[in-house]
Structure formats: C-alpha cells, structure tokens
C-alpha cells in the first residue's frame, strides 16, 4: 500500500467518523435528543479516533497514530457496550430514537468495532510507512484529506461546545432535559 493510498483510506475513514458524529449532532440539534453522559463519552471516543486519523493525514501514517485510534476505539467501544448492557434487559427502557431499529449507542458500538477492524488491517501494510522525508507535508496535496480533516475539526468543536452548553462546567444531568448553561443565563435575566 502506497503512502498516498493510505492517506486516501484514512481520509475515507475520517469522513465515516464524521458521518457518525454529524448524525448524532443532527439528532441533538434538530430532534432535540440531548446526549446522555455515556453518549457524550462515546463522542469523545469518536473524536479521539479522529485525532489518530488526523495525525495520519497531517504527518503520514505511523504505527503510533494507529495505536491512538485503537486505544480510542477500545475506550469508546467499552462505553457503548456499557450502555447497551444497561438497556438490554426488557423493561429497562432505552435512550433516544432508534435508527434503522438500533439505538445510537448500539451503532456506536458497531462503529468502534469497525474502527478496530479497519485499523488492525491498515497496520498490516508496511509500505505506507515510507521515509518521511520523501512525503509531502500537510495532507500531501490530497483534497479529500483536507476536507475530512476540517470537517472533523468543525464537528469536534461543535460537539465540545454543545456539551459545555448542556452540562456547564459540572456533572451532566442524567437524563438531560435542557441546556444547563442557557437555562442559567435565562434565569439570570
């Protein structure tokens, strides 16, 4: 696998992570389904996966960057499995609307599994780790990589901002019912 093919595959992976985050953000903003604390932690895991992919896009593929992705996917997968297990028993309810019959936390678990699988497969190809001096810096002229990187950056900032609005500087409400910071500002006026 050439470094350019690796960069393109990493960009596609980044766009897939962006799609999951964008869908979660859509449900939050448009359908007003505020993320619970475990949902927010899963988003942190997705953003951390994006950090590893972003490092690959910026500086070329490195095993260390893939390791960040694997650790982040293990973390996020653990959180999503925890939430799945909380709601697996009949009668315990669920959180959020289902998407194609599965709840967001189940889709997150599937996404984290796919990140683990894809990252492990990418680690099998040594040629992507070409001599760094022979690679072009900063995205290597790959437009898809640039788009993926900046979309991920925007989604990370939007998710961090919305989490701050929802939870404030303290502990998040479970289940969340409103944006805590906005409520406090309205109460002060």
| Major beta sheet summary | none
Poorly predicted ranges: none
By DSSP, the count of extended strands is 0
As a percent range, the share of strand residues is: under 5%
What coarse outline follows from CA principal-axis ratios?
globular
Task: Write down the secondary-structure element order.
Answer: HHHHHH
Rg for CA atoms: 18 Å
Q: What percent of residues adopt helix (DSSP H or I)? A: 55-70%
Number of helices: 6
**What's the rounded overall pLDDT mean?**
89
Output the structural class.
Answer: mainly alpha
Task: Kindly report how far apart the N and C termini lie.
Answer: 60 Å
Describe this structure in a few short sentences.
This protein has six helices and no strands.
Describe the structure.
By secondary structure, the protein is mostly helical. It is 67% helix and 0% strand. The chain is built from six helices and no strands. The longest helix is centred in the N-terminal third of the chain and has 27 residues. The protein starts with a helix and ends with a helix.
């Amino acid at each position: 696998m050439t470094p350019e093919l690796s960069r393109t595959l990493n960009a596609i992976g980044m766009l897939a992570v962006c799609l999951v985050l964008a869908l979660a953000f859509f449900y939050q903003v448009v359908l007003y389904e505020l993320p619970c604390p475990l949902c927010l932690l899963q988003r942190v895991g997705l953003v951390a996966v994006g950090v590893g992919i972003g490092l690959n896009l910026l500086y070329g593929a490195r095993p260390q960057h893939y390791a960040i992705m694997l650790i982040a996917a293990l973390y996020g997968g653990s959180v999503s499995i925890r939430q799945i297990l909380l709601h697996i028993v009949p009668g315990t309810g669920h959180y959020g609307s289902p998407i194609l019959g599965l709840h967001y936390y189940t889709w997150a678990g599937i996404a984290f599994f796919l990140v683990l699988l894809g990252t492990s497969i990418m680690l099998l190809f040594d040629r992507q780790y070409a001599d760094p001096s022979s690679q072009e810096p900063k995205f290597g002229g790959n437009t898809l990589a640039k788009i993926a990187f900046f979309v991920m950056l925007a989604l990370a900032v939007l998710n961090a901002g919305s989490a701050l609005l929802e939870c404030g500087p303290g502990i998040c409400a479970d289940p969340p019912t409103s944006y805590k910071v906005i409520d406090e500002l309205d109460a002060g006026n």
